[in-house]
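Hey team,

Filing this mostly as a record. A colleague (T.K.) asked me to run one chain through the structure pipeline before their review meeting, and I want the input and output archived in the tracker in case anyone asks later how it was produced. No errors, nothing strange. Just documentation.

Input sequence:
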Amino acid sequence: MLANWRNRRWLVTTGVIAVLGMFTAVDVALSQPPEGRSRSGRMMRGPGGLSGGMGLPLGRLDLTEDQRTQVRNVLDQNRAATREAEARVYAARGALSDAVNAEVLNEGAIRAVASELGLSEGEAAIQRAYVRSQLWQLLTPNQQAVALKTQAEIEERQDHRRERMRERRGRRRGADQ
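Output structure:
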């Protein structure tokens, strides 16, 4: 009888650990960069992900099949312009890195490339805003309200993470001194 109880206790403990492991795996999966963007904020392929719709949480809005088709059409129509804008940003970042890491300091070149990067970033932001505006028009008022609420929740979580990182850095700096 005692051996049977120990086996049950071991099975229950193992089961609890397995369930906790699954919750951890789900948490890790949900904390990954959303489809459509990497952690650095660069655009990636894939409509319908958390940011695949240019910052709109399309995956959480219960889009109709017609809306999904329209979203795909908007993203397809703007894909070339968006990729071109992002490619210019990528190239300008590379050029700035090269200018900063050059063997001989050339302040003028760094300023010129940094200015070009700023213009490229601005053009890419305008392109994203243009696409987002088109996608926003496809949503019902209820979906727009859900999108705004979800975006506010995401920003709140991001702010909370930033604050925790600041606290950790402060503790590390205090320990280093």
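Quick notes for T.K.: Helices lie at 2-30, 65-100, 107-138, 141-176. Residues 34 and 81 are 22 Å apart (CA to CA).
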